[in-house]
Amino acid sequence: MFTSDLTIKNITNRLTHIAAYTRTLARTNLNDSAVLSENFYAGLINRVYGYEVTNSNNFERNSEAIDLHDIDRRICIQVTIRQDRTKYKETIEKFIKNKLYEKYDNLYIFVLGYKDKIEKDFDTQELFEFNHKEQIISLHELIPTIATLDDEVQEDIESYIIRRFKFPIFV
Question: How confident is the prediction for the chain on average, in pLDDT?
Answer without folding.
Answer: 87
